[in-house]
Specification:
Elements lengths: L8 E5 L4 H12 L3 E6 L2 H15 L3 E5 L5 H10 L5 E4 L14 H29 L2 E6 L12 H21 L4 E8 L5 H14 L3 H10 L9 H11 L11 E4 L9
Parallel strand pairs: 1-2, 1-4, 2-3, 4-5, 5-6, 6-7
Helix pairs in contact: 1-2, 1-8, 4-5, 6-7
């Protein structure tokens, strides 16, 4: 299927590895000009070169912290009129809420809620003026089924979800959609880190906890960043113009509920 977005311009956060990189790769394969951002220059440059080699698309790498005003400004200097924005940043640390002070909470809220809101604020009016826009926020399956050791993420990402529910409906008539993708168990560095934390908490080996997590997924495996990226690319397509304000769970059937 031709997604109808060749020649469009996109910004993808947290794109040096994992789900962000998967999204950038999938968009580039559709002929989208992609601006990718992550904190470490060497890592984001390496990702850009890999995506260019695989797709032939134009890829601009920006080394910046997208959770800061300065970082977002740097990205928007590189891509001032994005048609597509994929908001993605590393999740906050795991742990026990009794150990988290106000500063820890504020940092989590900034990284996984406010930074996405400000990126939406900086780009949505241009999309409205151009009559095309696709904003995808990578949140977490924890929004639907909270994970006990990820309280910071549960709270911050749920706050973003509530915000999007309102603003998405305000801009839909302009062919601008805003949706959230809720990844379940995908085999990324972040997922491996959380598994190690669980293993330590449960006094079990990493391999034991990994196997038990796989057993909870109906598909019998973890997802891959590439297939996640393909889902993201469809949400950014011309054909997806009637999908907005949705929280789309991608978890291989792990969530046991009907709704």
């Amino acid at each position: 299927m031709d997604l109808g977005i060749a020649g469009r311009k996109a910004i993808v956060g947290g794109a040096s590895a994992g789900l962000g990189k998967g999204c950038a790769m999938a968009l580039a394969r559709e002929g989208v000009e992609v601006t990718i951002v992550a904190r470490t220059a060497a890592n984001i440059e390496a990702a850009a070169e890999e995506i260019r080699a695989a797709t032939g698309s134009r890829v601009t790498a920006v080394a910046a912290d997208i959770t800061t005003d300065e970082g977002r400004a740097a990205v928007l200097r590189a891509c001032s009129k994005p048609d597509i924005v994929v908001n993605n940043s590393g999740g906050p640390p795991s742990g026990n809420f009794r150990d988290w002070d106000r500063e820890t909470w504020v940092k989590a809220l900034n990284g996984n809620m406010l930074s996405a809101i400000f990126m939406i604020k900086d780009t949505v009016d241009g999309m409205i003026a151009r009559k095309f826009g696709r904003i995808v926020n990578i949140t977490s399956s924890a929004v639907k089924a909270p994970i006990p050791i990820l309280g910071l993420s549960n709270g911050a990402r749920s706050g973003l979800t509530g915000f999007v529910a309102g603003v998405a409906r305000e801009v839909a008539k302009h062919n601008v959609t805003i949706n959230n993708l809720l990844p379940g168990d995908f085999d990324t560095e972040r997922h491996q880190s959380n598994t190690r934390a669980m293993a330590k908490l449960q006094n079990r080996t990493y391999e034991e906890v990994r196997a038990s997590r796989i057993a909870q997924v109906a598909a019998g495996r973890f997802g891959t960043p590439i297939e996640f990226g393909q889902y993201c690319a469809y949400l950014c397509s011309a054909q997806a113009s009637f999908i907005t304000a949705q929280n789309l769970l991608i978890d291989g059937g792990k969530y046991p509920g009907t709704f």
